[in-house]
Amino acid sequence: MDPSPSISAPSLFSLKGQNVLITGATRGIGAACALALAQAGASVVLVQRNTPEGSKPNHETLNAIRATGATAEVVYCDLDDLKAVKGLFQKALDVIGGQIHVLVNCAGIQRRSPSVDFPESDWDDVLNVNLKSVWLLSQAAGRHMVPLRRGKIINFCSLLTFQGGLTVPAYAAAKGALGQLTKALSNEWSKDNVQVNGICPGYIATDMNERLLADPVRLRQISERIPAGRWGDPKDFAGPVVFLASSASQYVCGELLLVDGGWMGR
């Protein structure tokens, strides 16, 4: 591993000259992270689902980044299409030109059902998007970054990396495995100056949690247990993602950073 740079503290967090590939950036946490990375100086490649025929693509994040003067491009890929995922990293390289310095795996899906009735198709969908696509993208990133002896991979894990949850067996299985994958890749690649870390969101007010937010009983139960006294906001991830993408985290390896308002500490 290369030593941490001896530069001023503000410069440690600069991403000027860095190219970032990020999934799940069209909304919620991913959109907030993509904008923060661009504001820190990075050029950003956003992965977006293929647009259904007859509808317009969602370019809100792309336009917001470009409005800051930063470079942003889009590549299209459905992450449940694993054959397409295998070519995604090279596709992003072709679009941005040069190298990719940071990979952020933020995309994810959720399926809820009692475990005795949980459909096998839902299990496969969640594991493919939330785990196998991350593995394939990370493997491609490693093949690119390790020979260059530099890079950052940031995986979005979950509280369910540590806990089992209710009626979400596939999501819990995928996020638990993702935490272990993060550590396994870090164990191999840290010596090659590639830092692999995870961010674990707590309860965040996004569309993935619409059902919980709409359930007054569960909303009260969850809210009362959060020491910070509120649900998280996507903007709460701007600082953590820039930190893990930058030289400020040069000696941070295999960590699962909780951004949960204190939930896991209680």
UniProtKB/TrEMBL annotation:
Pfam families (alphabetical): adh_short_C2 (PF13561)
This protein's UniProt keywords: NADP, Oxidoreductase
A GO molecular function held by the record: oxidoreductase activity, acting on the CH-OH group of donors, NAD or NADP as acceptor
InterPro entries per record: KR_dom, NAD(P)-bd_dom_sf, Sc_DH/Rdtase_CS, SDR_fam
Domain Ketoreductase: 18-192
Family, similarity comment: Belongs to the short-chain dehydrogenases/reductases (SDR) family.
Name listed for the protein in its UniProt record: Ketoreductase domain-containing protein
Naturally occurring in which organism (per UniProt): Asterophora parasitica
